[in-house]
Design a protein that fits this description.
The complex is a heterodimer of chains A (183) and B (289). Chain A is an alpha/beta fold. Chain A contains six helices and seven strands, in the order αββββαβααβααβ. The longest helix of chain A is centred in the middle third of the chain and has 25 residues. Chain B has two domains: 220 residues, no CATH class; 44 residues, no CATH class. The two termini of chain B are 43 Å apart. Classes of the chains: A alpha/beta (183), B alpha+beta (289). Chains A and B meet through helix 1, strand 1, strand 3, strand 4 and helix 2 of A and helix 2, strand 9, strand 15, helix 5 and helix 6 of B.
């Protein structure tokens, strides 16, 4: 808490830069820190959604339930991120912005990706709440695509993990949070 | 104060009626405020008559109070579209927005302090239009604006109630509402001007030109696009926490585990919650915290 304020002190004039986007496509990133909380073993999940080059929606938060496997935690984060992307897609339709292709969500967990594409109940995942399986439905209808991304390019990492300064600064740059241009 | 009373009279906010014992009469008082610009300098002084809404009874004086709030993602998305398409974003400020709301219930109020009618001192005001402080004021205003926008051809967004869309031919305009702040942008500047004129024929408003300060967010335009910042807001939080002169650090969370010590600075729970709440709003422009 105090640390956040000290961080802000050094970056009071940083701001979110909105630049011209050549593409009007949505793409999202989701990630988790599995059982990261020492007290209750809940995982921290996060997502980040870009519109073209500008981040427009993000969230970081503890998941409501304890995940028995990292795949399950990733799958839940994926479902949350997908719900946001779908909502934004509706919003774009409302704004009469034609969508070119199905939005892509980048996830760094292969297990969760297979789970979202594969309508088979595996022994280890049969306890996953039905709620989260809506994502399979959307993938099957080709309304969203889910692709693999390596952990080091995973932009949602910054929402779930503690990062050293150099990495943090690099992520912050990609989130378009920058100091004002020196005039 | 005189200005405010005149505005209320011009608006036919209330009529005087004789008091009946069955009426639940709410009080009223004056609130004084200093309006500041984004740099903190004083813009104007303002006196506002407010109703003491906390004495209203549900079911009798009001039923619905919900008024939608804007979604941050929508604002960022609309900004992003406007930047990509090179559209100007107009900011409109509605004068005395809440006073435009029409009340659907009978609400009675004591005569305002200092402005009691000397001929009818025991009469009470029957309110026709809403006043600041009434429970249903935000709702009544939103309903009124919503009805008007739909009547001039806007379409309400299905997924975000604070967003309205106007399209004619290939041209399109977006209108975002946050209580009495309105953002308007679109593909055709003539059409935008026409819509602003239509709005100002119904409500007293000011066109502030290109958006520069909205919901406490400073908007700066550059050759590259827009920069959204909450510089003043951050300084306010730091002042409130007494940490203006603290030593800055590079990251918001330490990578070592040793920092989970109890924070003596925030032993006061209320203050702690206030600051956490303030930090949450800061995430409007700062995904990095």
């Amino acid at each position: 808490m105090k640390r956040i304020l000290r961080y802000l002190r050094g970056t009071t004039s940083h701001g979110l830069h909105i630049t011209r986007s050549s593409s009007f496509a949505l793409h999202g990133f989701t990630d988790v820190d599995w059982v990261g909380s020492v007290e209750d073993r809940k995982s921290t999940g996060g997502y980040l959604v870009f519109f073209g080059q500008t981040p427009i929606s993000w969230k970081s938060g503890k998941q409501r339930t304890v995940a028995r496997s990292s795949t399950k935690a990733e799958y839940k984060a994926l479902a949350d991120g997908a719900a946001e992307v779908i909502w934004l897609q509706y919003l774009l339709t409302d704004l009469q912005i034609p969508s070119t292709s199905a939005p892509i969500i980048w996830c760094d967990n292969l297990g969760a990706i297979y789970l979202s594409a594969n309508p088979v109940f595996h022994a280890r995942t049969k306890h996953v709440e039905v709620d989260y399986h809506f994502i399979r439905d959307r993938v099957a209808k080709k309304e969203i695509q889910i692709r693999f991304i390596s952990s080091q390019d995973q932009l949602a990492d910054v929402f779930t993990k503690l990062l050293p300064t150099s990495l943090f600064t690099a992520f912050r740059f990609k989130l378009r949070v920058n100091p004002p241009p020196s005039a | 104060m005189r200005e405010e009373i005149q505005a209320l009279r011009a608006n036919r906010t209330w009529t005087l009626v004789s008091f009946q014992p069955s009426m639940n009469v709410v009080g009223s008082r004056w609130v004084y405020k200093i309006k500041r610009r984004s740099d903190g300098s004083i813009e104007r002084y303002k006196a506002r008559l407010v109703a003491r809404g906390f004495t209203q009874q549900e079911g009798i004086d009001y039923s619905e109070t919900f008024s939608p709030v804007i979604k941050q993602a929508t604002v960022r998305l609309v900004f992003s579209i406007a930047v990509s398409c090179d559209w100007k974003i107009h900011q409109l400020d509605i004068y005395n927005a809440f006073l435009n709301g029409v009340l659907d219930k009978e609400v009675y109020m004591k005569q305002p302090p200092g402005f009691v009618d000397s001929a009818l001192p025991s009469h009470v005001c029957r309110l026709h239009k809403s006043l600041y402080g009434l429970k249903q004021a935000p709702r009544a205003w939103y309903t009124r604006l919503n009805d008007f926008l739909l009547s001039i051809g806007f379409r309400a967004s299905k997924v975000d109630t604070s967003l309205f869309i106007f399209s004619v031919g290939a041209d399109i305009c977006y209108l975002l509402v946050y209580v009495d702040d309105i953002l308007l942008t679109g593909s055709n500047s003539l059409l935008l001007q026409r819509l602003i004129q239509l709005l100002s024929s119904e409500f007293k408003l000011r066109d502030l030109g290109s958006v520069y300060y909205f919901l406490g967010i400073e908007v700066q335009s550059t050759s590259m696009g827009l920069i959204l910042r909450q510089h003043k807001y951050i300084l306010d939080i730091l002042t409130q926490a007494g940490m203006l002169s603290c030593k800055p650090v590079n990251t918001p969370i330490s990578t070592s585990k040793a920092t989970i010590l109890p924070d003596p600075l925030f032993s006061d729970a209320t203050r702690f919650h206030q600051i956490v709440g303030a930090l949450q709003y800061l995430t409007f422009t700062r995904p990095d915290i």
